[in-house]
Amino acid sequence: MMNVWTLFIPELYCLLMAVVFFGLAMSARPNPRRDYFAALFMAGVGVVVALACVRLEGTLFFEAYRVDLFSQVFKVMLAMGFFLVVCLCTELNGIEERHHPEFYLFLTTCTLAMMMLVSSVELLTIYVALELSSYSLYILVPLRRGHGVDVEAGIKYLMVGACASAVMLFGLSYVFGVTHTTYLVEIIHVLPGVIGTPAAIVGLLLVLCGFFFKLAVFPFHFWAPDVYQGAANQVTAYIATASKVAAVAIIMRVVALSGGSSKYLVDMLVTLSIASMTLGNLVAIVQKDMKRLLAYSSISHAGYVLIGILSMSATGYASAIFYALAYLVMNLCCFLVVVKVSHDGSDLKIAQLAGLHRRAPLLAMALMLAVFGLAGIPPTIGFTGKFLVFAAAMEKGYVALVIIAMINATISLYYYILVVKAAYLMEPDEELPRLPVSIPTKVLTVALVTAMVVFGVAPSYLLEVARAAARMLM
Amino acid sequence: MTVYGAVFYILAGVILIATGLAITRRNLVHSIVYLVISFFGSAMLYYLFGAPLLAALEIIIYAGAIMVLFLFIIMMLRVEPSALRKPTLRQWLPAGVLGLIYVAVAILVVTTDPGSQTILETALARPRVFGRFLFQRYWLSVEIVSFLLLIALVGALYLGKAFVKEGGDQKEDQS
After folding, report:
1. Total number of domains constituting chain A
2. Which of A239, A288, A348, A365 has its CA 20 to 30 A from that of A167?
């Protein structure tokens, strides 16, 4: 009995955090410093807990829940994403002070839900875990101070999310109807045999739609720009990083169910991947708002990740895991700059970056590296990630897809360079004071930059972990 | 016609009328009351078909919990019966035509399809078995759902508060 609960420790720890924030939310007087340090400390411990549990293995709750290297690696990423987002909350100006405990509470419950999502191997559990994470985000988006855009963004998010949920439930019913079970362990034996039938393939695709919404893949991307812009900067950072990582994990789990033998599924994923990449990159070019630009860039990155997943080989899955991690680090670095530059919590226009190299040289350098990473320029982790994903696709012979992806990467370079140009070459209309960058922020920035470069040049350790995790899926 | 048959047609008729009234009332409270009547009818239908547990759940969950919640929300928000325009012919004609097609097809299916004559095997589950199955095998899902409800409640509280505050601000602006 003891053993069972040891497997569940990262989730239990998250639950404990949620309880603490729930208690803090009850307190009569708002105290942002107390909330911040409580969150920072507990999130930091959370990363340690997740790391300590990385080697655990076993199944729980009538086999509905599997703890293996795959799930634990993603839990570490989620805990890290959560911790880093909390690190950005020193000046949480976008949210009213008395709502800070609620803000941390919903971040925690969302992390908890995603941890359960990456471990669930039963359709019903997957669905409710997904809903829990979505509900937390639905409330986080309109938490922003000042009404107007944020309410619209919140409603849009809720509407698209509810539609995606409905579509997904419809797909789940098909999958259940075809396989007569909700357990992935049994489905993986039955489904490859019947994947040729329309009901199975349609069901699987519809189930995937629910996760495509989370990842903002082409037909379900409408929410991304508005929500990115409408939500508080820190919330956007969370949506753009941790929630994407969880989506990648669960899409891999579901795609792996098909057994890799379905031509239709591959064709469909190729189409969605190309559509996402192209649309995201082309629309990103005309964006003036930094967060909207990052939103469209995230749509295109969803396309790149899909390339790794649709290869449906161990290399492909490993490359997708690596890409998810790379994306987490690069995007967090971008959002670190966004949060610090717009310290009053407002939206950041790209033009506002002008003169950043003089106002805060370290942040400007971090932004440049992160943006080059997103574009896929060596020696950053972004280049390594793209290289691995493309290599996995080439191995399977998807040459045309890789060529289209490369053209897209070139297009994306244009708008990423625009950001760097704003930060380094453009001068502000009026002289702006230097940005105050605190010591902890400096440490965090340097750590992220180091991670981007070091793992870009020497990815072998991370890649080994990713490969070992991907083997769990096969 | 047996007495069960008679009961069935009476119930079916009541459900149809109640649901029809529910979707046509302008006053939200009235339509909810009619919907509750319709749910009670469905519950009795389930009982008639030999599914007492389903009947009980229908009353407890749908007619009881959900509808009472609806009533609470409507009373809390004090939604005035909206002065909506009556839908024009152009608006309801497509819906009417499509609905008629459905009715026609349904009659066709029921009268011609030999499959409609076969009697389906009844699947019986005792409440005890059902409960055990749910709370053992799907224990985790049930727990996550309960947590989900908590989060939804906190969120509703927050959004409700923000809504009220905004309303207050507007009043100050007007004065």
Report:
1. 1
2. A239
